[in-house]
Amino acid sequence: MWEHADAMGTTWADGFDWALSEARAGNEAGFLHLWRRLQPRLLRFLSVYGCEEPDDVASETWLQVVRDLHRFEGGEEDFRGWLFSIARHRAIDATRARIRFRDRLARLPVAEPDPGDKPVELAVLEGLSTRQAVALVAGLSRDQAEAVALRVIAGLDTPTVATILRKSPGSVRVALHRGLRALAADPRIKTLEEVDQ
Amino acid sequence: MIEDFPELDPLLRALTADPAPAELTGEESAVAMFRAQRAVPRTAGRKRRFVPSMGMAAAAAMVVAAALTGGAYAAVLPTPIQHIAHRVLARIGVPDARHSPSSAGASSTGPSSTGPSSTGPSRLAAANPAAARTSGSFPSVTRTAAAVQNPLPVPPIVLSAVRTEVAAGSSVTLDGRLAPGGAPMADARVQLLELDGSRWRPVGAALTDGDGEATFTVRHVTRNTEFRLASRVVTTHTALSPPILVTVLPGLTVVISDGGPTGSDVITVTARSADPGDMVILQVATGTTWRDFTELRLNAAHQASFTVVVAAGQNYRVVLPATRTHAGAVSAPVQVPRGNRESATSHHRP
Question: What ipTM goes with this model?
Answer without folding.
Answer: 0.77
